[in-house]
User: Fold this.
Amino acid sequence: MFCSNYMTSYGAGSVYATEQGVVKIEIPDLSCSEPMHHGVPQTLEPSKLTAHAAELLQRYFKGDCIDFADVPVVLDALPPFCHRVLEVVRNISYGEICSYGQVASLCGSPRAARAVGGALAANPIPVIIPCHRVVASDGRLTGFSAPGGENTKILLLKMEGVEFKGLLVDKKQLLMHRMPLL
Assistant:
């Protein structure tokens, strides 16, 4: 296992990877007014992959439009449906949003919107697999399992230029086209 840290104005984050790809991302709590600094075990060495991913994440949190497509991820330990959901969500581009129902349809299970939510709650690689870009069909933010919960989700979406009407995402921004499937 390898690890690299990255810094944001919200605090530190970490990228964990094997030789095959990224297995876990820790992001800072964007809802905190004071940056949080959590330690990373000093026994883990960085790799080219973790250093590259950490650099991209640092740039992302500075507001750069980053495409993480070249960062390999490892999802082998996840159940097949969860794996499929995360593969589909990985194709949602910076600044775009999709509903849980749309993701379920793209996974071939149009009635599985709740199961999509469960799969996203288990996402070990937030931001690189942008689960924050999935919202309810009416624009509600229905949760976010990363530190800071929905407040972090709001900040990530606003950072990407997604518009809100109060606490709801403007529904007109939902992707209605079919995203390429892997």
Summary: The helical segments are 48-61, 80-89, 100-106, 113-121, 149-159.
